[in-house]
Amino acid sequence: MHFDPWNPEFVAHPYGVYAGLRRERPVSFFEPTGQWLIARHADVNALLRDRRLGRSYLHLATHAEFGRPDDPEFQEPFWRVIRAGMLDVEPPVHTRLRRLVSKAFTPRMVEALRPKIAQIAGGLVDRFVERGGGDLIAEVAEPLPVTVIAEMLGVPEADRHLLRPWSADICGMYELNPSVEAQHTAVRAASEFSDYLIGLARARRADPGDDLISALAQVTDEGDTLTEEELVGTCVLLLNAGHEATVNVTGNGWWSLFRNPAELERLRADHGLLPTAIEELMRWDTPLQMFERWVLEDISVGGVDIPRGSEVALLFGSANRDPEVFDDPDRLDVGRADNPHISFGAGIHFCLGAPLARIELAESFGALLRRAPKMELAAEPEWGPGYIIRGLRSLEVGIS
Ligand code: HEM
C-alpha cells in the first residue's frame, strides 16, 4: 500500500505506510494534492515552529501573487467566518486574537471547571451504564465536550443539538480535495452557524451573562476588543476545535485499549496510570492525522529544497510513531513516561484547549474505568470517511 488518504484501507492502517515514508522518503512530493509530505518527527516539529511557514499567506500576498486560484465566490461566507478565527491567521493578527481569548483557557481557569466537567461526565457515564452500554461515541464521547464548550460559551441548552451537525459539516472542508457537494454543505453550515452566533453575541453584548461569549464581547483592560466578525469566528473555532478531536481521542482511545487487552488490564488495575495513558492514546492513534502549512520563504527540509508558494502536509500520525523519538513506537504503553507526541501541535498555533481537553479525557476515561470496569467491545467498529480528522463511526460496547 502507499499513501492514499482516500482509500479506506489506508485510513484504517496508515502506520505501516508512514514507516516506509520515514525510512525511504521522509520528504516527498504528493502529486494528487500538490503537497510535500513530511514524515519525520524532527521535521514536523521544526516546521510547526518555523516562522517561514504559516497557516495562511494572505497577510503577505494575494492568492494570485502566491500562484493560487481565488476562492470560488460561493465559498465567501465560509472563509469570512474561518479567517476571522485565530487558527487561520498569522501574526500580528494571530497574536492579538490569541491574547484576547487565551485568558479563558489558562490551566488555572480550566482547572476550576473540573468539578463541573466531572459532573457532566459522571452523569453521561451513569446513564450509559444503566442502559447496559451502546454506542460509546454517540452516548458519551460526543455529548461531553459539546456540553462543556457550549456551557463555557453560554449556548442555551435548547440550541445545543444544532452544534454538532454544523461543526461536522464545516469540518468537511478540511479534508483533502473535498467534493463540490461537501464544499456547499460547509458553506451553508458556516452561514447558518454565523447567523446564529451573531444573534447570540448581540444579545449578550446588550445583556451580559457569566459566560465566555459575554466576556469576549467586552473590552479588555488594554482597551482592545474583538470585532463582531472576530467574535463569531472565535466562537465557531472554539465550538469546532473544542470537541471534534476530543470525540475522536475518546473513541479511538477506547478502541486502542480493546485491541491491547494487556494494557487495558494494566490501566484497570492502576487508575494512577490515567494521565500517561491518555497521552499515549493520543500518540498511538493520532486523532488529527495531518496539518498543513504554506511555505512563505524558500526552505530546505532534510536536504530537499521546497520553494516559497509550496504547501507542506505535516504527518502527525507518522511523527508520533517515529523510532528516533519513541522507544518501540508501535507498542501501546499506557505507562510511557517520555512522550513528546505532537498531537496538540507546536509553535504559535499550539492547541489553546489542550489543558481543557486533558481534563475532559481524564474525567470521561476515569468515570468509565470506575463505573464500567468490565466494559467490552460488542462489535468491530468502522472508520469514518475522514483522514485528517480521523475517527470511528461508532463504538458499540457492552457492560455486564
Ligand atoms: C484531544 C483534543 C484536541 C486535540 C488533539 C487538539 C489538537 C489541536 C492541534 C493539533 C492544533 C494546532 C493546529 C495547527 O497547528 O495547525 C490545535 C489548535 C487549537 N485548538 Fe485544539 N485540540 C484538542 C482539543 C481542543 C479543545 C478542547 C479546544 C477548546 C475548547 C481547542 C481549541 C483549539 C484552538 C482555539 C486552536 C487554535 C490555536 C491557535 O491557532 O493559536 N482544542 N488543536
TrEMBL record:
Keyword field: Heme, Iron, Metal-binding, Monooxygenase, Oxidoreductase
GO molecular function: heme binding; iron ion binding; monooxygenase activity; oxidoreductase activity, acting on paired donors, with incorporation or reduction of molecular oxygen
CDD domains (UniProt xref): CYP164-like
InterPro entries documented for this protein: Cyt_P450, Cyt_P450_B, Cyt_P450_CS, Cyt_P450_sf
Domain of life assignment: Bacteria
One Pfam family cited in the UniProt record for this chain: p450
Entry similarity comment: Belongs to the cytochrome P450 family.
Protein name according to UniProt: Cytochrome P450
